[in-house]
Amino acid sequence: MKNLFLSICLIIPLIAFGQKENETYKNVSDGLIRMFNAENYAGVYEMYSPVLRKFQNQEESQKYLSNVRNKYGKITECQFIKFQQNFGVYQATAEKGTLLIRISLDDQRRLVALNFSPKK
Questions:
Q1: Could you tell me if residue 116 is left (phi over 0), alpha (psi between -120 and 50 degrees) or otherwise beta?
Q2: DUF3887 domain spans which residues (predicted)?
Q3: Rounded Cα gap, residues 99 and 90, in angstroms
């Protein structure tokens, strides 16, 4: 009985404070994956905020996304993992491997940051 009570006390905070993907991040990540798979890199660039566009122009963005697509192939599954600092972190399963996608959004639901990296 003592162990059961202790187990319940340890599990309740995990359930109560578990991170959930919000609807905004879900919609943006779904659109991002759809355009990425269709090789619509211009569409992805249109999702960029003015801040991100200062750091990466359309040509650089296309090259970056194309390199990721060539390395991993189409993304077949993508699921939310957690929020880490200002990023929504997703684990994506692609044709040629598994990767992490980190996105950060501004108030207008535009991408402030976008990063693809291998899952370690």
A1: beta
A2: 31-114
A3: 8
Give the integer Cα–Cα distance in Å for 7 and 20: 23
Q: Residues 93, 86: contact at Cβ < 8 Å?
A: no
Structure confidence at residue 21 (pLDDT): 79
Query: How many CB atoms sit inside 10 A of residue 46's CB?
Result: 12
CB half-sphere exposure, 48, CA atoms < 13 A: 20
Reduced to 3 states (helix: H, G, I; strand: E, B; else coil), residue 83 is: strand
CA 103 to chain centre: 5
d(CA 55, CA 23): 27
Give the three-state DSSP class for 27.
helix
Q: How far is C-alpha 77 from the geometric centre of its chain's CA atoms?
A: 12
Q: Backbone phi, then psi, for 105, in 5-degree steps? A: -120, 155
